[in-house]
Amino acid sequence: MLCSGQVSAGTPPSSPRNAGCLASGTVTTRLLTDLSAPALAAALGPDSVVVLPVGAIEQHGPHLPVATDLITAQSIAERAVAQFGDELDLWLLPPLAYTKSNEHAWSAGTFWLSAATLTAVLHDLGRSLARTPARRLVFLNGHGGNSALLQVAARDIRLETGLRTFTVHPRPPADQGGQSPAGELGMGVHGGMDETSLMLHLRPELVDMSQAARWVPEHLDAYRHVRFGGSVSFGWSSDDFGPAGVIGDASGATAGYGEQRAAGMVTYLGEALAEVARFDPRPPTA
User: How far apart (Å, rounded) are the C-alpha atoms in residues 256 and 138?
Assistant: First the structure.
């Protein structure tokens, strides 16, 4: 543990031994960019886990801000690192805001990178982290449209740099086998009950519930395989399902439900990151 809420006795607050601690003795959010370069190099070690929140800036219907995925990824990452950081040696990088969101490119307010550009950015960040003593990098993804690309990038960065790389979601997306409320028929993938409730908990001043409505593609429930969360995936644009760009039912969202979901995400991430911190694919030696 780097610090447990008190600055080490007889050691100046600016010492690498106290990196991540304030002069008052309180623990920071373990944000790497708060440290000087020498303090960062001293704070990190081969068992450190560096977490990069990956969000998106994209339309989320008429009731949610375009920064919904960014806010969610950053907020949940901050809570998880604050709660489990000392125990697991977790460190936080500033979030990556602009990512692969071209399924929402039809709408004003969507700012997106091509797959090639985002892949190059991820590789550059991986190479940068590889110059530090840390050997574990986690992409904490808040936008389902990034998932496949992050998995490919994580594998390539592993092969190129030797870092152990991981992709984790605060919750598995509904279109990738995750759950959504029953009323959404398993297809609440964008701007629905979960995301709206989370935003009512995290940033209620940015939510306009007078514009929240139900936009569930119920006709897809007749398909067994080709559907969100089905065994056959399909390419789509969010305006394929209606002019609002929403795929889900935001009408019943509540801050209380969002608070429960956020707490569950942080608990899950604590368990997942504990495994990340000790993961080794090599068979144990006798």
Answer: 29
Write down the pTM of the prediction. 0.88
Q: What structural domains and CATH numbers belong to the chain? A: 29-35+46-278 (3.40.50.10310)
Distance CA 101, CA 58 (A): 7
Q: How many CB atoms neighbour CB 271 within 10 A?
A: 10
Residue 36 CB partners (closer than 8 Å, separation 6+): none
Strand residue runs (E) in 39-115? 49-54, 90-92
Closest among 82, 94, 81, 89 to 133, alpha carbons compared: 89
Residue with tokens 């092969």: 159
* CA–CA distance, 271 with 108 (Å, rounded to integer): 38
CA distance 155 to 140: 15
**CA separation for the pair 221, 57 (Å, rounded):** 29
CB 11 within 8 A of CB 18: yes
Please name the helix (run of DSSP H) or strand (run of DSSP E) that holds residue 137, with its range, or none: strand 136-141
Predicted confidence band of residue 286 (pLDDT cuts 50, 70, 90): low
Interval 219-266: pLDDT, tens: 999 999 998 888 899 999 999 999 999 999 999 999 999 999 999 999
What's the CA gap between 163 and 46, in Å, rounded?
A: 10
Cβ count near 205 (within 10 Å) = 7
Helix (H) or strand (E) holding 72: helix 68-88
The rounded distance, in Å, linking the Cα atoms of 29 and 81 is 7
